[in-house]
Amino acid sequence: MIAAELHLDLQSDPAAIAPARRTVEEFAARHDFGERAVADIGLCLNEALANIIRHAYEGRTDRPIALHCHAGDDALTVTLRDWGNGRLPDLRRQPPDPTALHPGGLGLPCLKQLLDSLEFLPQPDGMLLKMIRRRR
Amino acid sequence: MVLSLHGEIDLHGSPDLRTDLLALLQQTGSKKLVLNLSKVPYVDSSAIAIMVECLQRLRKIGGKLCLVDPQPRVKGLIEIARLNTLFNVVGTEAEALAV
Fold it and tell me: Which burial class, exposed, middle or buried, applies to A45 when counting CB atoms under 10 A from its CB (0-12, 13-18, 19+)?
């Protein structure tokens, strides 16, 4: 039986994003998530890791990130724990107006658009991000 | 100016790509940038931000940015960012040069 859990200990290095994304995409595909869902999960993981590196760890490349995935009957749950500055992003912020040509600010709108559930759970020493993508 | 990009572009490679593209635009004074994306299977939002910044620079001098043959995952992100109407997205370099 294929394990329905995956755990990765990562460093806050941009070079770690692509290998982690591929590992989680392969995990999702092995658990029968469709091509679209796999792509959405990979992109959301990429954006979430990039946000942790850039904002929670303010560019430091040597800090820990714990990644956990659980493939359930209905959904894939990905949690990311960091020990950064613990600042909550503004989830009410609207995506940038494309005609204003403002580079950046696209990561969070991607997460909000592609995921079924997105929760930032503040911890005493950082943040726990919980992302859920249903199979649909 | 026509450039062909190769490989995945995420936060690992995007800072160098940004530096190179903006320097090329500055040095050449080119008014049209054609990015052939047919060999780019994946980008994240940091790559899209670079394209937006290039378009910003080009528009200031009356220029254009054309994206050639973006792959499905790349096209998907451009659509999520609602930039598909701002970028000239075409199928071939010849089409891009005719825009």
Answer: buried
With an 8 Å Cβ cutoff, are B80 and A113 in contact? yes
CATH topology of domain B2-98: Transcription Regulator spoIIAA (3.30.750)
Of A91 and B4, the one with more pLDDT: B4
Chain B: nearest CA to A21, how far in angstroms? 11
Q: What is the pTM of this model?
A: 0.92
Residue of chain B whose Cα is closest to the Cα of A16: B12
Contacts of B85 in chain A (CB under 8 A): 98
Residue B55: which of A18, A101, A104 has the nearest Cβ?
Answer: A101
Which tokens sit at A100? 């204003």
Round to the nearest angstrom and report the end-to-end CA distance of chain B. 13
Place of tokens 């990765």: A8
- Please work out, in degrees rounded to the nearest 5, the angle formed at the alpha carbon of residue B73 by the alpha carbons of B78 and A117: 85
A110 vs B85: CB contact, 8 Å cut-off?
A: no
Q: What is the pLDDT of residue B1?
A: 93
Mean pLDDT of B45-50: 94
Domain A4-134 has CATH 3.20.20.10: no
Q: pLDDT for A22-35, tens place per residue?
A: 999 999 999 999 99
Distance from B74 to chain A by nearest Cα, in Å?
Answer: 11
Q: Which residues of B touch A15 (CB under 8 A)?
A: 12
pLDDT number for residue A93: 76
Which residue, B3, B1, B20, is CA-closest to B61?
B1
